[in-house]
Amino acid sequence: MSIREIKDKLLAIASVVRATHRTSRKTRIISATALGMTLLTFGAAGVAPLAPDASDLPVTLVVEELALPDLATQIASLSPAQQFVSEERVRSGDSLATLLDRLGVNDAQAASFIKSDPAARALLNLRPGRRVQATVTPDGKLLSASTLLADGDVPQKLVISRFGKTFATVQSDTVLEHRTEMRSGEIRSSLFAATDAAQIPDAVAMQLVDMFSTDIDFSADLRRGDRFNVVYESIWQGGEYVRSGRVLAAEFRNGGKIWQAVWLNHPGSADQGGYYDLNGKSLKKAFLKSPLQFSRVTSGFTMRLHPISGKWKQHKGIDFAAPVGTPIRAVGDGVIDFVGTQGGYGNVLVVQHGSVYSTAYAHLSRMVPGMRRGTRVSQGEVIGYVGTTGWSTGPHLHYEFRVNNDARDPNSIVTPQVQALAGVELQRFRSVAADMSHRFELLSPAGLQVASR
Ligand SMILES: [Zn+2]
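^ thats the input. predicted complex w/ zinc ion below
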């Protein structure tokens, strides 16, 4: 049998093999029918893109010319009780020796092959979290080992297999599957408590915060009973979860208002795009609602007794309490107009947004390196960190929103909108939005207005 024939045969039963890999760690394969799977695990390990369309993928045989023992002889020499399949995740501080040890491999020949073979050496990149599967004999001889190398553009499946007294390495393209997940949740204490309860990954929760941050201040505005629906991508490989992807759509009921967002790629781009409401209006606004991602307003735009001078005066800004070192984001695209110290402001940064608007960020512990007069900054970019420099009684950000250099209450100002979708793009958006609206309906058939208790 040629390598090609073996490969084809094994790919045909890849799903069965996958089932054996999915079983719990250190599975001892004992049943009679498992014999077939065991052999196939062994063989398939030499080929292995375990994706449905795997046969379409380019497979690179790194070591091509091998004195292959007759497959029949190999099959005859194996018995069902002679194989163990195990899977381990790389831990920080792991060496090849500690990893092989946990996998139940006690095989100096295999270890030296992995260290010396140019292709197999990729296994020495012991990135914590990486999964490694191994098939071993009861006395710890390695029959095969495999892992997913997801560093490049196209993830690679690396498989090291024993063929008699020697080893071979095969590296092949693999396919990441994109699945769509739908979840909903209700705020009881905090956003993250709610997303945890709904089994939504933190990376997705952070995207929710970002996408609605021009409308909702997630620390000040959240109310018990607020609800949300979210549709997001998850990335899988060979039936195993790899990571979460982009939020495709979400809706959030905050107090009496409902905010909705649908992702649309820019034309011809796979990963550039933006969020729009269901009418095709961009969610991106000229200014973020808060320069801090999570914060608490301690003093608004009101008359107050100055904490240090003791005189009543207009507080010409908004104070956000936050620990020293909390990142401060530019609320809009602009150019740095001032960086330095200024009397009571302490370390202060001023960003000019066009000719009319500017924003000031005061009492900073430090600026982000490279921020100087004339530096361009974009909305959401971190420009400095919360501190307590200047006339300040504790760590907080003093934020000013200025119109023609006059500090104004940002909540009272109607700021310019970003342009809406039109023409062909609006058509394309409508079809994406219709699909997402349908998913929202599936998640909460009665709509978000009706609290479900
Ligand atoms: Zn202040």
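Residues 299, 315, 317, 319, 398 surround zinc ion (CB under 6 Å).
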